[in-house]
Request: fold
Amino acid sequence: MLTKVRSWGPPLLLISPTLVLLGVFVYGLIGVNINTSLTDNIRGQTTKYVGLENYTSLFTDDTFIYSLRNLAMYTVAFLAGTLFFGFVWAWLLERGLRGEGIFRTTYLFPMAVSFVASGVVWRWLLNSNTGESASGLNRGLDMIGLGFLQNSWWTDETWGILAIAMPAIWQLSGYIMALFLAGFRGIPDELREAARMDGASEWKLYRHVIFPQLSPVALSAIIIIGHMSLKVFDLIMSVAGQTNYTTQVPATQMWLAFTRGEYAVAAAIGTVMLVVVAVMIVPYLVHNYRSERGR
Reply:
């Protein structure tokens, strides 16, 4: 009997340029960053290794803890808002809403705008002035008799970061809508008809047939939006600026440390962000790998 010998040479040769680039510019630079975070590097000058001292200082710094708290609040609000509006819009379009093309284009249009450009507009909309000097949303609320809803938006120390989530939700909900709409359109009509013939109500149809089919889409949406929220930087810089305390997150803290020449501290913050993103992404990759192997 002849045995087929698998040759790994040509495939490895084909992907070798990609492996080299990944090794140098991704994993290599991650290694350099981690190495820097273990030193006392200030403005490019390293005198000694300090081990985990930079990390210890970070997690005993009230400002950094506050930035982590802000990041958690922003991520939860961003995820909940985009998933809710994205699903509702997709559900309305899936049910045959008239003018679907117009609505789909309208919902997707914000994706074409950068966070920097939209942040400039939202900075005006979320102006914290109230009363006669109000502008933006506060002015609009006053004009329609809802002046009692005026607030300080992103300048509020407790809830200010949630105001930053508003433009992010507005900008990415259309993308989540497109994912869910593709999921809806990918469900065979035969499954729906079979459920209805078995006497399933509309709620049971969604609960037992449609929602389970949409779970992979929802998981992908959570991973995509989740990792984007953990790295938020440009939107905050555009709306609130780099020195505003109420909207501090690890990314802005890292930038401030870098501009002060505290390269080791900035590298430590970057490593913490990498670990946080990995905690969210790696389980998803492992799940996908096991699913592929189980087929």
Observations:
- The longest helix spans residues 62-94.
